[in-house]
Write a structure and sequence with these properties.
Blueprint (H helix, E strand, L loop, with lengths): L1 H7 L29 H11 L1 H8 L1 H8 L4 H31 L2 E9 L2 E7 L8 H12 L3 E5 L5 E6 L3 H11 L8 E9 L7
Parallel strand pairs: 1-5
Antiparallel strand pairs: 1-2, 2-4, 3-4
Helix pairs in contact: 2-3, 3-4
């Protein structure tokens, strides 16, 4: 009996810690300031962990952190923070502009006389992973769907069959990040493989 009591009370044993990671930049909130998305990180932290936000970003916490700095260092810190905020805002604007200009191309390609494949390109610009979308398309249309590399260096999703219009509807329904105006349907009558038999 004495042995079991000694085993249960071990004060020197390390205890596990619960670490919170930012939902925006995936760093612990104490290190979010070193990433490029400080404002988004602060908004996320305020919504999800208000107590931690108050501890890190409240006026009192910021004043306490900068009180030990000299006046020149405080001015430099404010200037650096302002530059980082402007840089992050410019990067976000550039990303939004890139999304607005990006196009998803759905192309129907004739493979053999009456056989078609449908290719989808341009999904990467909207933050979608081609492999996951290909898997969803394969399940939805009960057909083969794969990701292949194109000579220009990107990737395309190849779906067996002529399902271009259905793919357009599916993408608009499932992936709301793609605006309807950014989807382009193209019909290509060239044969994909001249030596393919069927």
């Amino acid at each position: 009996m004495a042995d079991t009591e000694a085993e249960t009370v071990l004060p020197n044993e390390p205890q596990s810690r619960h670490v919170v990671y930012c939902g925006v930049c995936s760093l612990p909130p104490e290190y979010c300031e070193f990433g490029g998305t400080v404002k988004k990180c602060q908004d996320w932290l305020q919504r999800t962990h208000a107590d931690m936000y108050d501890r890190l970003w409240s006026e009192d916490a910021l004043a306490a952190a900068t009180s030990t700095l000299s006046l020149d260092a405080q001015k430099r810190a404010e200037k650096d923070a302002h530059k980082k905020a402007l840089k992050a805002e410019a990067a976000e604007q550039k990303h939004l502009q890139q999304i607005a200009e990006s196009k998803v191309t759905i192309k129907r390609v004739e493979r053999n006389k009456r056989k078609f494949v449908t290719t989808v390109t341009g999904l990467e610009a909207f933050g979608l992973e081609n492999k996951k979308v290909a898997k969803d398309l394969g399940k939805k249309f009960a057909t083969g769907a794969s990701v292949t590399k194109v000579p220009s260096g990107g990737e395309e999703i190849v779906v067996q069959g002529d399902v271009s219009e259905e793919i357009e509807e599916f993408l608009l329904e499932k992936y709301k990040v793609i605006p309807e105006d950014n989807i382009e349907l193209v019909e290509d009558k060239k044969k994909k493989g001249a030596g393919a038999g069927g």
